[in-house]
């Protein structure tokens, strides 16, 4: 009974100590070994050991279908160290109802593709304009018109080229069948496209319009803040309205092979990426048909919505061009045996990094543990930003971190999940000097040293783990996802890049393992 009580005290005490220590930005001890729960003081020590850090080519490809795309990016940019990246969006189209009727002499007025980029919630960045004596044209109604302009908040790349960056957004018909929503699609795939259906110049912000009658505040018009791309009304007249009553519009299976989808892309090769949720995209067809009222054909306007939401295949195509770049050269000579002096990380299928703890380091730590009775309190990988990264592009704040060829989460997630202050990745002065990342692998290293677990390489890629919208817990830690927890991440649409110092004996900021241990004096 005494031993059990002492063990309980040990667990409670050391969990509390670990929680307090983890609050610091500099990762310290997460846990203390039970061998120190005896009389006498413990002495903390730090071991710094070089890592074999090397570049990993992901072949500039990543899975980018429905299963991965709660968000997509659109645009293009050119980073000197990494080269060009361009992102396009594909979606199937379905009818909102099948075998539709549009009425007599139906004629398309217009078609509009509506995209809602990520927008700010703070009013500080919203420009508002009010016209109190506006005349609403339908009925010449005295009204108040309020216009609000919202900047797109998620932009990665060059937001100002010649004062303000313009992106020319094009929409084309897709002429290849795209499959089903469970089809696995990778970012280097492509689907053939046909006619250009519409184009829009985009300058980085969107506008909402609200018009209310001055007499009784009745809302006369309301348009939310979004990007509206006008499409070819003749195409939709012939493709949709003229086919009313024909087999092409009779059922979903037939329709998605008849009208196979849309591609949204930008004409430019440099600028920036912006982000939007694919399931919020809308496609609206405005048309008029005969309506006889008191002997008069009024031909009112109607709206038919086409379904471009979650029922459809969504796909993001990502194009890279690394010719003549430092990243391209580094990928060509990647060395997992001796390491690479510079590490190039880029999201959206770009390169990642492998980190190997040398066998000699493992042997020396085992000696500390077995023969010198030392306990590992903390183990972190420190990676410094390389001084060559001098541009203003945003650095990643997080990394998707795993053991090589392992699909489950690192044990750090479950071991320290009780501690609300635990962070797998902590950063220091991202845009200053010194700028570095610390990756907490305490549990992983302890298992290698104390339980003879295999010493697998650590692999990091740009991105973060996705959260459950309701609980804000990691989706990968859900019981049904544990076996493949690493699949639930944002890599496919996180574009950030960074250059880090790798294995370079002449550089004091080289990649290192930092181990804090304690042993009895």
From TrEMBL:
InterPro entries: DUF4270. It holds the Pfam family DUF4270. It comes from the Bacteria. This is DUF4270 domain-containing protein.
